[in-house]
Amino acid sequence: xxxxxxxxxxxxxxxxxxxxxxxxxxxxxxxxxxxxxxxxxxxxxxxxxxxxxxxxxxxxxxxxxxxxxxxxxxxxxxxxxxxxxxxxxxxxxxxxxxxxxxxxxxxxxxxxxxxxxxxxxxxxxxxxxxxxxxxxxxxxxxxxxxxxxxxxxxxxxxxxxxxxxxxxxxxxxxxxxxxxxxxxxxxxxxxxxxxxxxxxxxxxxxxxxxxxxxxxxxxxxxxxxxxxxxxxxxxxxxxxxxxxxxxxxxxxxxxxxxxxxxxxxxxxxxxxxxxxxxxxxxxxxxxxxxxxxxxxxxxxxxxxxxxxxxxxxxxxxxxxx
Length: 321
Hints:
The protein is α+β, with helices and mostly antiparallel strands. It has a domain at 2-171 and 261-309: Penicillin V Acylase, Chain A (4-Layer Sandwich). The chain has five helices and 17 strands. Strands 11-10-9-6-5-4-3-17 form an eight-stranded antiparallel sheet. β4 and β5 form a beta hairpin. The protein is globular. The mean pLDDT is 95.
C-alpha cells in the first residue's frame, strides 16, 4: 500500500507514503555521480546523474523505493499485486529488472520525455535482487515539472499512460482509477447545493458537505480519490509549500492498526516523503517522528560511495513554558 503525488505549483514537489506491515531497513540514500551502477543484463554506468531518495541497500546496491535526480526528474515504485507481469529478457530491448528500474531511468534521463522514450524500449525482467528479495510487483510514476506518467508492466508488455492528476496508488491498473474517479466528480470544497429537490427547502447543517461521499477507507481506489481531492483543493501561501504537501499526504496516511494483513499484521505509514526537484532537497517524516527532516543532494553529488542517512528517530516534542 502506497500513495505518490506529483505537485506542480510554485515548486515541483514529488513524494509518497510507504504503507507496510514491517520495515526493510529503508534509509535516505544519495547515489553520487561516480558510484558504479551495475545491471544484470545491460552495461554498467560508471558515471551518471546523482540521485537522492529512499532505498534499502542490499549487497552494496541501492534498491530505491522513490528518488529524484539532480536534473529534476522523479520516480517512485508502488505495489501492484495481481496485475504486474515481468518478462524474460527479450532481443531488441533494454532488459532491466524491476529493482534496477529507478536508477536505470534517473541515471541517464534528464526529463520525463527522455524517460518515456527510454521506457518504451525497456523490457522489465523477472530477475530478483537475491534469493531473500524476490521481485516485488510494482508499477511506477515518473514526473517532472511538465507533468506525470504511469508505467505498468503487464502481460502484453510495458504500458505508459499520461497522468493528469499526478496521483498514483496501487492495484487495480491506472485506467481503472481514471474510470472510478468519475463516480466522485461532483465533489468539491464549496458548500453543498440543493440539487436533489430544488422546490423544497433543504439547507446544509454543516460545513464540508460539498464533499459528502468522499471515501475514507484505506483501499487503493479510495486513497486515489481522496488524494486527488486533497491535491486539488488544498491551498497554500508563499513559504508553506512543503508544509502543504505533508498536510495533503496526511489525508491518505495509515494509522497503525486501522488496516491489517491476512495474517493479522498491522499496516502503517512507515514514512512520508517530499522532494523539491529543483533544489535536490529531500524531506521526510516517519511514523515514530512527525518532525519534518531534510537531506540535501548538494555536497554529495560527486564521489564514488553511497551516502546513507538513517530515518530512525523518536517523536520530537517541543515543550512550551
